[in-house]
Design a protein that fits this description.
With about 150 residues, this protein is mainly α. It is elongated. It folds into two domains: about 70 residues, no CATH class; about 80 residues, no CATH class. About 70% of the residues lie in helices and about 0% in strands.
Length: about 150
């Protein structure tokens, strides 16, 4: 499934590049475009509409990532690259904070479970008996039964 998505995204990106200004295309290395062309799923219908803006297209996540890579690597100015890096760092921090909150909540759940288990561990401890004592007690019980039978 992942391989299909990436090959489908290569097709989407290649189709988008077909509608892109030639001056922008010339900034992309030909080897990269050849790579897309060689590895795209030619049977995939990407549904790219030349009349719609790129942000209104139904793109795969992988396609968005490739377009971001192309934009940042070949089309963006130095100032835009800095802005993109800052935005990426902020999103990363926000995602890490969300993960930290989730981890904290999970840790609280486990801590609650551990505390509950500690409270329920008030079991009676039975001292371990040696083998000789067990045998002696067994003989004693058998003899008591035998004596009770004889009395009747």
């Amino acid at each position: 499934m992942v391989d299909n998505n990436i090959n489908n995204s290569f097709k989407q990106v290649y189709d988008i590049l077909q509608y892109t200004d030639i001056n922008l295309i010339n900034k992309i290395p030909t080897k990269f475009i050849e790579f897309l062309k060689e590895n795209m799923n030619v049977k995939y219908n990407s549904n790219i509409n030349a009349d719609l803006d790129i942000d209104k297209q139904p793109l795969l996540k992988e396609s968005e990532a490739i377009i971001y890579l192309i934009y940042k690597s070949y089309w963006a100015t130095d100032d835009e690259k800095i802005d993109l890096d800052n935005k990426y760092r902020m999103e990363l921090l926000q995602n890490n904070e969300k993960k930290d909150i989730k981890i904290k909540n999970i840790n609280e759940i486990f801590e609650h479970r551990n505390n509950r288990n500690k409270r329920n561990n008030n079991l009676i401890v039975i001292p371990k008996q040696s083998l000789l004592i067990k045998i002696f007690n067994k003989i004693k019980r058998i003899s008591m039964r035998f004596l009770n039978i004889k009395k009747d």
